[in-house]
Design goal:
single chain, mainly alpha
């Protein structure tokens, strides 16, 4: 593997100045470069698919030498896997932190609104995930069997505790998670269809706000919950 370039060395990091003269520590430079690579990877994989995307094209899109990209991700498969880890962590972070003592209505409403906002801000992420699943999850199968299965079971246990305590209607928690995933990601995955039906050239933020309000109302009422004010 080619050695990492000077742009990524600790000496360069120490000398590097951020906005307003703020110095960047080596760790901050690494985090920033890794984020740039993963953003570029999302765009490249979405445009050209896994087979069509190359390390070189991703490096060019990220504005980094190929050697730097290989320092962070030794091959395309590792980058593809890391990209999906990043996407899933971003989607589910807010609901990962729920606890039995939390208010069910507040927790679910926050999760729904956050997921709709993810569809607005990161539509490529949602479409890439959908394409991977439609193709049989060749790169995500281990993650689905382990991390995702464990995550869903853990969230379902918390929701079941709300149900057992009479704080929420007796719904199937796992099916509820599926419903929230599918309904919120719909606005990214089927953007063309929605825009054509609604006779719009492009989305506006208020479209997503309206969608979030609608989904929160429908889902929470189905769970026997009051809509948070």
């Amino acid at each position: 593997m080619t050695n990492i370039t000077v742009a990524d060395s600790s000496a360069s990091d120490k000398a590097g100045e951020g906005e307003k003269g703020r110095k960047y520590r080596p760790g901050r430079i690494r985090v920033r470069n890794r984020e740039k690579i993963l953003v570029a990877a999302e765009e490249e994989f979405a445009l050209n698919g896994y087979k069509g995307a190359t390390i070189q094209s991703i490096a060019e899109r990220a504005g980094l030498p190929k050697s730097n990209v290989l320092y962070y991700f030794s091959n395309k498969t590792r980058m593809y896997s890391a990209m999906f880890d990043d996407i899933l962590a971003r989607w589910n972070k807010v609901f990962t932190e729920i606890r039995p003592e939390d208010d069910p209505a507040e927790a679910l409403a926050t999760f729904i609104r956050t997921k709709v906002e993810m569809s607005r801000k990161y539509p490529l992420s949602s479409r890439l995930f959908a394409m991977e699943i439609i193709q049989g999850a060749p790169f995500l199968m281990d993650h689905l069997r382990t991390n995702m299965r464990e995550w869903v079971r853990g969230r379902a246990e918390v929701m079941q505790s709300w149900i057992d305590d009479g704080r929420m209607a007796p719904v199937d928690p796992v099916q509820l998670i599926f419903l929230i995933w599918s309904s919120t990601q719909h606005y990214a995955d089927f953007q063309v269809q929605i825009l054509m039906v609604e006779n719009k050239a492009e989305y506006e933020k208020r479209d997503f706000d309206r969608a979030a309000d609608f989904l929160i109302g429908m889902i929470l009422r189905g769970c026997g919950l009051e809509i948070p004010t």
